[in-house]
Amino acid sequence: MKNKVHSLRFTVYSILFALLTVNCTLYTFCYAQIISSSELINNAKEYDGKVVTFEGEVIGDVMVRGDFAWVNLSDISNAIGIWMPADLARQIAYTGSYKSKGDALEVAGTFHRACPEHGGDLDIHALSLRKTDAGRLIKERVNQSKKVYVFILLGVLGLAWILTLLKHK
Amino acid sequence: MILKPRLEDIKIIFFYLGKIMIGLGLVMVLPALLGLALGEVNPMLDFVLALEVTLIFGLILTKLCATSKDLNWMHGMIVVSLSWVVAMILGAIPLYLSGHWKSFLDACFDTMSGFTTTGLTLVCDLDHLSYAHNFWRHFGPFIGGQGITVVALSFFVKGTSGAFKMYVGEARDEKLAPNVVDTARFIWFISIIYLIIGTLSLGVAGIFLGMKPFSAFFHGVCIFMAGFDTAGFAPQSQNILYYHSFIYEAIIVIIMIAGAFNFNLHYQLWIGNRKEIYKNIESKVFLLSVSALVFVTAVGLQQMHIYDNAVILFRKGFFQVISGHTTTGYMTIYAQQFISEWGNFALVGLICAMAFGGSACSTAGGIKMLRLGIIFKALKEDLKRIILPEKAVVVQRYHHIKEVFLEDKTVRAALLITLCYIVLFGVGSLVGMFYGNSFLTSLFESTSAAANVGLSCGITNVDMPVGLKLTYIVQMWAGRLEFMSIFTLIGFMVAVIKGK
User: Of 1.10.3210.10, 2.60.40.1230, 2.40.50.140, 3.40.50.1000, which CATH number belongs to A36-137?
Assistant: First the structure.
């Protein structure tokens, strides 16, 4: 009976230990994968020349230059320029602007603190790309209270203008 | 005994302030129309609301304080200093309504930064800002760079005597044409010619870089307005790093230098006097100063071993020094990199460039080339007096549009304003340090604000303390107006309270 209890206890502890190890490994793995822009910029020397994974929203223009393209990815804190083959850039359907939410991309590539190929810019040369979230058009909802205030103030402005004319007469 | 200002004085001041408000309200029509054309309804409403409020206040003031009297020196100075504060508050309304600024103070910070052609910003999520709001951010420096009262002078002010006082109040004392209103109009004329050339150059370059045509020309017009007016705003959060292009950077360098040159020099070139550019004291000082500071910055960067390639080192160093020296503030690196990568020596070079600034009577800020040249000439004169026999007559001359003999009062004025700038840089640094920043970063950000540059090493952000935001607003305002009109405003307020 005592041996059975010991054996059960050993099994439970082993399972718990295994779960903990897997959890820790996964945790470390995930955080080693996606690195924030602030982390990359503030510790650029440390990451220089290494393959990193960066995730963010495509903003502005996709600037195709020959067989390659510049895509700027923003993770809210900062945006970083990604140099990628033009074929990869063709996957991008939406870019972030006032009227649209850009595609979210996860890019794995070589990080350069001062890229020798691109005039010393801090950039990432993409090796692979994965769309994690599709972008979309943002439908603008007209703010009704702003509309009301516009009409009220238009009346006040008209009144002020008429009063100015009366004074002149 | 201090004399209390009369009601008539206050009426004159508010009458002209009202006129400037009407001018400001009318220019808000442009972003409202852009919003309408592009189907950005809420941004259009923001601008209609703001222009209505501005016009209502303007009409009420001009009606209540109607006067036919011209401005005296005190009135002119006070109108100018107050008009910048009023423009900041009214110009911030559409920005705040957009929801991209966390507080009205943040929106005011950006408006003051724009009008004073500084370029420091507290905007959130710039990459999703509407075209209308983005246009307004860049149009502000275009109005402020030429001078808010220059706008009003060009269209609303009839009396040239009072107009000249407002013109001087905005730290401009050089008349290009015999009449100050004609001078204001020439400033606009030359700015619009450059606007067309600059926008076309940047727009075409943008298309070649892979941007869509509309986007390329929109970026072109924005970058030109903020570059020529030495503000340093850009439509995207990465600033100039967004474009990843040497050609684009080269065009911007030319625009920044053109903006930092004296309008009088532009006028001389326009009337065919090309030799002036080689003879002018400001061009000479600028060339010397840029050469020395690029060297200092390059040495600093070399010590840090960031850029292994000499061409890259020069490209990065030169662009940032020109950007700082012309007080534009465009960046091809991230703000954090100044601290983490550039090292103290390169930063000191950049701080000096920002403090020295551009030319007098230009859109640039800082101490100014003319003052530095005059101080250097005065130093040379004093050294000659010591070295030469006592009976020798020592005379110093400098060339600025014409040959000018150096007079003590000119040197005194140059030294006084330089001293005021140094004090302003120092006070801003102290406040920065009070909030826990290091000496060098505080000095960097303070110099950037007071010299209306806009380069940032990261202190300026939405989460910075309110006290620091207010300090930088005052620094931008005082630095742009070069103190005198602000001192007059303070004196006027003291007279209102204590006068008999």
Answer: 2.40.50.140
